[in-house]
Amino acid sequence: MDKSFEPSQIESKWYAHWEANGYFKPSGKGTPYTIMLPPPNVTGTLHMGHAFQHTIMDTLVRYHRMRGFDTLWQLGTDHAGIATEMVVTRQLNAEGRQRADLDRDAFISRVWEWKKESGGTIGRQMRRMGVSGDWSREVFTMDEGPSKAVVETFVRLHEEGLIYRGQKLVNWDPVLKTAISDLEVVSEEEDGSLWSIRYPLADGTGELVVATTRPETMLGDVAVAVHPEDERYAHLIGRMLALPLSNRQIPIIADDYVEKEFGTGCVKITPAHDFNDYAIGQRHGLPMINILTDDAKINDAAPEKYRGMDRYVARKAVLADLEEAGLLVETKKHKLQVPRGDRTGEIIEPYLTWQWFVKMDTLAARGLELVEQGHVRFVPENWINTYRHWLGNIQDWCISRQLTWGHQIPAWYTDSGEIVVARSEAEAKAQAAAQGYNGALRRDADVLETWFSSALWSHSTLGWPDPQAQAERGFDRYLPTNVLVTGFDIIFFWVARMIMMTDHFTGEVPFKDVYVTGLIRDKDGQKMSKSKGNVLDPLDLIDGIDLDDLLAKRTRGLMQPKMAEKIEKATRKEFADGIPAFGADALRFTFASLATHGRDIKFDLERCGGYKAFVNKLWNASRFVLMNLGDGAVTPMAPATEAERWILTRLGETLATVKEQLALYRFDLVAQALYEFTWNEFCDWFLELSKPALQGSDAQAVASTRYTLVHVLETLLRALHPLVPFVTEEIWQHVRPLLGIDGDTIMLRPYPEASDVTADAAATAEIEWVKDVLTGVRRIRAEMNIAPGKTIPLLLADGDAADRARAEKFAAQIAFLGRVESPAWVGADEPAAAVAVVGGMRVLIPLEGLIDVTAEKARLAKEIARVEGEVRKCEAKLGNANFVANAPAEVVEQERQRIADWTRQADAMREQARKLG
């Protein structure tokens, strides 16, 4: 093995080897274990959230593959309608061309060119992360198979009366001129105004005053609502108002939606431009008057004066005319939530338009039932509440988009506007002819929103609805899948719809578990965004990047100079030296260690640096083991020393913890257990404890220690492999020949089980005692500033027969590892010494000629204060009647024992302090 670990030299080598040999493909043997990759959008490159989730999925897949499961990790990408169309449109603009310069076919051809480029980038990134999915089965949502599934789903739902075309209110982006989903709307508080306006009674006998933040929409008002129990207006309900600036009259209606105490208690109702007003209009059978065009200008339904004006130009004109007419009562500053499209930043309009919808009531009821009955489980389980909230308040799903890129809706229109839904144009013509129409058909130009095809992902990727494709892709074997790893923000938009659609068409749930991850934020808890200059590229962390390249990358394509300047300033401050190369393994281990069951995950490069040190520690420890083994194979032997039996016991306990926590999706605790064992117990302790045996004269101890070293290392490499695949493969290839192991790769070796390791409680107790003694000696050395290499005397006091037996048994190891003289026991006549307490025994380092007495007295005082604090904590717990009454008896007894132990330590140190004067 090389002296230092160089990730770049081994990562590409081993990934190419794995992929070329087909190790990622399902074996077809064993219990199936399936994960569907949430398909990333083909809009550029992967971000930290992708890398985080891919690490989690790859860990699960590698772990189950090693356990003998027939693993399928289904890979793929999503066509991402709006996002992809915008990227390509910007590319055209940069070339001095417009979207309108290309017809539909030419534009789609251009998008396919971009998809090929972007999809290749995503694939390269995933390979660099070590993703062990089956690339030979990779699927794109616009491929022939998924496209066929989309058409079949649409047609069947339409035949069942679950898909219909209707005129409803939707989120409308006036720049893109399309409906968008709630997920694509970002609402933030902004400064605005609240205008109060007089609405005269039609008969001239009075007026009502209403307040609005959008005065231009009054041109589409159809009523004013009051609360039915508001005594101020009860006598006016049913009367008519003269709508200002319009030659129309509108009624006063009563509705419980109105809050009597808010403002004047009068609310203008504009069903075509407000979602709440739309619901009121539906309840009262009110007309809907849309006053806007698709680019947010006033249309011909409004008074002639305002037609053709932009909505905000019209607002100024409306306010000026109200002021002139004496109908504007007042203007107040007002904070309000403003909805903006996440792609364009434009203010979104609630807009009345014809769209395609899926009826969701029965589908949602079934989707909720499947989760409530436990067919699908959320991890953490509290996310079921989010699922319940969405499905309990569900509206019909708007599935159409006014775009070019995507699955075109399989519907055709006759000259008279009759709709024919079919799987193909030929089938549509046949249906029309059967109904007596033989004229030309016009296909619906709209496409389906991306979530429609994504909702079919679990079964469409397995060949549905084609029986032959299902057989080839293992539909019956791999569905339902085992777990979906996804973010909390798409529980409704994707998770719920997958559950509903997969169940509806296959009778199966798409997955048994939904592991909901947190959101990756920067180290200060801020959301990562380009505008904040805190976005990290996973490949930059793997390969490293200097400051100049990082600056160029972050500011490339930014049109606003001020934003570029802001991002450059933040980048220079945070990454003055650029980003060092951490390697894929260190990045993966960092992600695993952060994978708690919380909502947000703070990513700090310092942690990544710490886990790079961990990978290097494993590398160096492996070199030590190999250098002490020679070139020949090692003969398996039973452990001859307590140190061997101790490390094997701890290995078994670690493996049990890993298995338990992986079943609970606690990747942070898995990483913690493996880190602690690798760094502290194997590297820091067992390698040191092995040295006296390796350098001793006991041939059996030498031989067994050599075997245990390499056996534990090989087992540890297998245990670590799902988290850090590259370094473990490289080391394993050097270790394998020494144990006579057949096989080309660690990834197909069995994952180690705790049951494979024999535990020895007695040996563990012995070695823990040795560790405590050595830890006490080392702490005194450090605190007293005694040189590590200086051999010092060691005295032992108090203790019992077991302590004396252990001191004699491990005298050589203690002397070797602690750089001390063989321990000697002292009685009442002991010298002034620095002390450490091990159970009922004191470890003494004589002071004369070694240490500063004043410093030792200060150290003892500090340690006594710490121990007394621990006593007080335990006493506070035991003084709490609720704790004593409700805690398990063993826990209460544990607290009592802790008080006794802490008190004994404090007494011993007080006695030592007394001896120092």
Automatic annotation (TrEMBL):
Coiled-coil intervals, chain numbering: 850-912
* SUPFAM superfamilies given in the database record: Anticodon-binding domain of a subclass of class I aminoacyl-tRNA synthetases, Nucleotidylyl transferase, tRNA-binding arm, ValRS/IleRS/LeuRS editing domain
- Motif ('HIGH' region) positions are 40-50
Record: residues binding ATP:
530
Intervals of motif 'KMSKS' region? 527-531
* Residues of the Valyl-tRNA synthetase tRNA-binding arm domain: 852-917
Which HAMAP family does this chain map to? Val_tRNA_synth_type1
- Quaternary state and partners of this protein? Monomer.
Return the domain comment text from this UniProt entry: The C-terminal coiled-coil domain is crucial for aminoacylation activity.
Protein name from the UniProt record: Valine--tRNA ligase
In its UniProt entry, the species of origin is given as: Luteibacter flocculans
